[in-house]
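Input structure tokens:
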């Protein structure tokens, strides 16, 4: 590995960590504010009753599914974190660094809830507070996971690789984002 390629990989890793850190910090701060100021209060309308701030504790996954499987979701989140950390050494693509950073930050945010919120013992309930009418109540970590996952699917369909190689369009797109 040449010096330029190595420093490019380190810059991509730094970008991944910066995105993950920003997502994680925003998620933690937003949950602290929601719990401190809004839990056990009436929903706060943001856009009528279409978008509200409504604090809920979710022991399950998206849409409250699998409430009795909290330990499984904790282990899945931990596996996602480990997998991203392992993949990071192959990272040479700016778009992939952003997508994986979103996914890592979101997974860490929800994993923190599972580890440290009541009832504890790897079975804590995640704090959700962004309520979209007739859809779901989510948090910033969930939104980051959805955005990161969507980007990863898009990059995969385009043939873009972690290493920055792949389809010609993928390299051109990655270079355009990096410029």
């Amino acid at each position: 590995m040449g010096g330029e390629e190595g420093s490019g990989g380190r810059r991509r890793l730094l970008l991944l960590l910066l995105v993950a850190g920003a997502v994680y910090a925003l998620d933690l701060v937003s949950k602290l504010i929601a719990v401190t100021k809004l839990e056990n209060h009436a929903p706060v309308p943001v856009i009528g009753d279409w978008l509200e701030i409504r604090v809920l504790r979710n022991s399950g996954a998206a849409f409250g599914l699998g409430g009795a499987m909290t330990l499984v979701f904790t282990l899945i989140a931990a596996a996602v974190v480990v997998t991203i950390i392992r993949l990071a050494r192959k990272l040479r693509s700016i778009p992939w660094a952003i997508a994986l950073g979103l996914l890592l930050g979101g997974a860490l945010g929800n994993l923190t809830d599972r580890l440290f919120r009541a009832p504890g013992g790897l079975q804590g309930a995640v704090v959700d507070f962004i309520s979209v009418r007739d859809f779901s109540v989510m948090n910033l970590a969930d939104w980051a996971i959805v955005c990161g996952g969507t980007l990863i699917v898009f990059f995969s369909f385009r043939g873009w690789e972690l290493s920055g190689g792949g389809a010609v369009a993928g390299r051109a797109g990655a270079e355009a984002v990096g410029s």
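The longest strand covers residues 51-58. The radius of gyration is 18 Å.
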